Amino acid sequence: MEEETFTGSFTQQEPIPDAGIAAAVDVMRHGRLHRYNLTDGESGEVALLEREFAQFVGAGYCLAVTSGGYALGTALRAVGVAQGDRVLSNAFSLAPVPGAIAGVGADPVLVETTEDLTIDLDDLRAKAASSGAGVLLLSHMRGHICDMDRLMAICGGSGITVVEDCAHTMGARWRGVPSGRHGVVGCYSTQTYKHVNSGEGGLLVTDDPALAARAVMLSGSYMLYGRHLAAPAPDAFDEIRYSTPNMSGRMDNLRAAILRPQLEGLSLRVDRWKARYRRMEDGLRAVPGLRLIERPAQEGYVGSSIQFLLPGWRPGAVERVVARCGDRGVELKWFGAEEPVAYTSRYDSWRYVTDQRLPRTDRVLAGLLDMRIPLTFSLEDCALIARIIDAEVSAVREGMAAVS
Ligand SMILES: *Cc1c(COP(=O)(O)O)cnc(C)c1O
């Protein structure tokens, strides 16, 4: 039989909706790209985006900034993290997360990872007590949401402030509550590979007026914070406007114009992602030696990527699966690789972080494979990709059995 191959691109996102293109062209025609460059009676695309995103997640305040990483750093500063502090965070995450902690001069205390790819809550409880950290930067890495009720109880009991990294959970929920709305502040990315696409960009939401005011000042509002539509009233700025440094990281009207129609269509896109995720899951469910991540009933996930484990497999065998799938057009990323590759890195390659050992995370990452699911894939594409993974995992597994 002719071997099937996949010819689609794992990095090709959908085009910007026509309404976004038209709005962006308008901004370029009038030339007022800076968020505070407004004519009489004009709100500006950035302020409108902030108001719409605040409504979308049900937050009191929203701030748009230059990137998701910038939103994380701003959130950490706004909750009061200072030079030399220790900040709890997931060992399984992406480099901008420990990078945001290092960026404020703090040191990450990494928390273990479960086989469901969420933060290990027992390890969190222990480190909340022993580390002296006052803040958890919680990363919902690859869209997996931990038991948020238990996490908030642990952090509440230990006096830990929770900042959420929702780069992979925009549009997701835990027991109906939007991701990013459990902690004191939620941060999102609008970078091309996330759930809305403006090339680069970030959003931050909170209900805390003092925190929101600090974040707005930090982002570089000068004394123009009155032009925001999702910021606290001007009196919240009365004192902090003198003491809060301007760390220039505003979003511009062009990117906000591109984002607003995407935000409007996000719920529909989430449904399309979920359909693709389920098709992929269906195709992989019965593959011997491969373990899918079971999604808890409380989790309203998006499914813009899928992960599976080859538990206990030797590195060489996992590498063979990656190579053989790659030969057939299926791009898998392996989180167990010694050397960081492209966007993927293991915690031990973040060498600016104090050296830490996390044996449970090591075990999980050693067998962890990851794949993006762009919306340019059809449902049939997803079924084909799953067939290819099934065949190659099975072939490598049979090879292992033959030599042992
Ligand atoms: C992309 C990403 C970020 C940072 O977002 P940028 O907009 O690229 O700065 C943070 N956390 C995770 C888990 C991410 O994947």
Q: Any idea what the radius of gyration is?
A: 22 Å
Strand content: 5-15%
Ligand set: pyridoxal-5'-phosphate
What is the element string, with H for helices and E for strands?
HHEHEHEHEHEEEEEHHHHEEEHEHEH
What quaternary form is this? single chain
Count of alpha/pi helices? 13
Query: Could you give a short account of the major beta sheet?
Result: 7 strands, mixed
Q: Can you give the helix content as a percent range?
A: 25-40%
Poorly predicted runs of 5 or more residues: none
- Indicate the overall shape: globular
Q: What is the typical, i.e. mean, pLDDT?
A: 97
In a nutshell, what does this entry contain?
With 404 residues, this protein is an alpha/beta fold. Helices cover 39% and strands 14% of the residues.
Describe the structure.
With 404 residues, this protein is α/β, with parallel strands linked by helices. It is 39% helix and 14% strand. It is built from 13 helices and 14 strands. It has helices spanning 18-30, 45-57, 68-78, 96-103, 121-130, 148-158, 209-218, 240-243, 253-264, 266-284, 315-327, 359-366, 379-403, and strands spanning 61-65, 86-90, 107-111, 135-139, 161-165, 173-174, 177-178, 185-189, 202-206, 291-292, 299-300, 305-309, 333-334, 368-372. The strands form 3 sheets. It has a 7-stranded mixed sheet with strand order 1-9-8-5-4-2-3, sandwiched between helices. The chain has a 4-stranded antiparallel sheet with strand order 10-12-14-13. A 3-stranded antiparallel sheet has the order 7-6-11, with no helix packed on it. Strand 4, helix 6 and strand 5 (161-165) form a beta-alpha-beta unit. The relative contact order is 0.16. Pyridoxal-5'-phosphate (PLP) is lined by residues 67-69, 93-94, 96-97, 139, 141, 165, 167-168, 189, 191, 202.
